[in-house]
């Protein structure tokens, strides 16, 4: 069974930029999964660092209003991996999930770490590149002009173990 993982679509990240396009694609995928009865699980990051936009207990940690109405199950995490010290594995096993689709924030951290951790746990993984977003830029990493989503997508795709698709490819292949 397939499941959609929506990672860290929270006020503290979404409010840092214009992510309407990415959130629109996430919304479409959530709707697709809901319509065919496939599980949709939401991850929510919280930090103890007072400078973090995702400070535990702050408004920044709340799921963004654009998607919070969909959230039947929200799992809190404190590291980039959605699996580390959470009950995500147990939830996926309980639901009979063997194929995990990855969307959310931040492409190069939580989405990538979770995709790799999912593969390491034996899941088939599909990373929907344009349904991920990041608050960072090439300048953040002192690599002017770096397209972070494309770079992460390329690295994961080259691994030959994680499928990387654009939303339109997802629609063609899976809906």
TrEMBL record:
Signal peptide: none annotated. Keywords: Hydrolase. Belongs to the isochorismatase family. Pfam families: Isochorismatase. GO terms for molecular function: hydrolase activity. It comes from Halobacillus salinus. It comes from the Bacteria. This is Isochorismatase family protein. Residues 3-159 form the Isochorismatase-like domain. Gene3D superfamilies: Isochorismatase-like. Transmembrane segments: none annotated.
């Amino acid at each position: 069974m397939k499941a959609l993982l929506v990672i860290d679509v929270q006020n503290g990240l979404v409010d840092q930029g214009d992510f309407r396009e990415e959130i629109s694609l996430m919304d479409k995928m959530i709707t697709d999964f809901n319509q065919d009865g496939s599980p949709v699980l939401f991850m929510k990051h919280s930090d103890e660092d007072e400078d973090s936009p995702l400070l535990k207990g702050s408004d920044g940690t709340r799921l963004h209003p654009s998607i919070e109405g969909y959230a039947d199950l929200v799992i809190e995490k404190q590291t980039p991996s959605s699996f580390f010290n959470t009950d995500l594995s147990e939830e996926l096993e309980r639901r009979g999930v063997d194929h995990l689709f990855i969307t959310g924030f931040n492409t190069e951290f939580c989405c990538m770490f979770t995709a790799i951790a999912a593969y390491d746990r034996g899941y088939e993984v599909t990373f929907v590149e344009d349904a991920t977003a990041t608050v960072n830029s090439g300048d953040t990493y002192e690599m002017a002009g770096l397209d972070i989503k494309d770079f992460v997508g390329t690295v994961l795709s080259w691994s030959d173990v994680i499928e990387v698709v654009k939303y339109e490819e997802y629609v063609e292949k899976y809906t």
